[in-house]
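RECORD TYPE: inverse folding
INPUT: structure tokens
STRUCTURE:
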């Protein structure tokens, strides 16, 4: 059985590639505040796959294999959020899959064998295959993703730029400001998780930069690759991203040791916030461009 860190390290010998026409477009569906992409592996059925900034290697993780064939597959362990043991899976290197009409080759495909994610309405996740190769524009108004080559994108003054930082796992981090009690604003370091349907998840631990608000309710927050996650839910007065302020933000409060493997994070910025902006993710230049869209004023 291959250990965790081998699962999450991309192979050095074969670089991922994508072949398609310039600036290809991929339609998506927004379901449960998640971006759902149409994905096929060979002649498989169309899988419903979540676009996930938290997936930090080039490839595809499937919860339901749809009877696909993986050549030269090995057994691995795949960890994730939750308090239980990692999920077992089969993994093949140098495989290929299609997202819409865009083909990605020399990719890693992992298919879960455990029943941890059984019953999920989606079939899997992908992420860095897109974000690591392209500048990714997400147009929530038109449910369309555009994959730009870095030398071909032009951004006008209607966009606001936010700085991204990356640690050693290729997951984007962003600086924000929150107010949890109505008294004072607090700067926080968040990492972006498009697979999270929450607006904001704050991580609860012994030493925190923010105070917990009153009137929190116990709740079931969801399931990760390592089991169920329980915590609390409530609203905070404000969340600021650059010059934009969102108010009465529905926020989840989760035990840090269960919800997140990211050291030093104050919380997680989820897609219920990001879907209120059209976004351009530019990993190469460590930038996130945002522009309010038709969902911006929608109440949480």
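DESIGNED SEQUENCE:
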């Amino acid at each position: 059985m291959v250990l965790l860190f081998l699962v999450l390290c991309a192979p050095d010998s074969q670089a991922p590639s994508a072949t398609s026409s310039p600036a290809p477009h991929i339609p998506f569906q927004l379901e449960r505040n998640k971006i759902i992409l149409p994905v096929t592996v060979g002649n498989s059925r169309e899988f419903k796959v979540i676009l996930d900034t938290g997936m930090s290697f080039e490839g595809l993780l499937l919860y339901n294999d749809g009877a696909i064939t993986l050549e030269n597959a090995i057994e691995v362990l795949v960890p994730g959020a939750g308090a239980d043991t990692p999920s077992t899976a089969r993994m093949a290197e140098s495989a290929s899959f299609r997202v819409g009409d865009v083909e990605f080759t020399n990719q890693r495909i992992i298919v879960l064998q455990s029943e941890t994610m059984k019953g999920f309405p989606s079939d899997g996740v992908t992420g860095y295959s897109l974000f690591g190769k392209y500048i990714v524009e997400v147009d929530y108004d038109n449910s369309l993703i555009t994959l730009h080559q870095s030398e071909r994108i032009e951004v006008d003054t209607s966009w606001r730029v936010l700085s991204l930082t990356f640690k050693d796992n290729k997951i984007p981090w962003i600086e924000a400001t929150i107010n949890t009690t109505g008294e004072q604003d607090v700067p926080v370091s968040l990492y972006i998780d498009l697979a999270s349907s929450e607006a904001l998840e704050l991580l609860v631990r012994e030493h925190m930069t923010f105070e917990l608000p009153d009137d929190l309710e116990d709740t079931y927050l969801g399931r990760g690759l390592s089991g169920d996650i329980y915590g609390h839910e409530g609203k905070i007065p404000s969340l600021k991203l650059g010059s934009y302020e969102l108010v009465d933000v529905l926020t989840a409060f989760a035990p840090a040791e269960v919800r997140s493997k990211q050291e030093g994070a104050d919380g997680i910025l989820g897609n219920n916030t990001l879907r209120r902006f059209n976004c351009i993710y530019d990993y190469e230049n460590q930038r996130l461009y945002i522009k309010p869209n038709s969902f911006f004023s929608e109440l949480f």
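NOTES: The CA atoms of residues 203 and 284 lie 28 Å apart.
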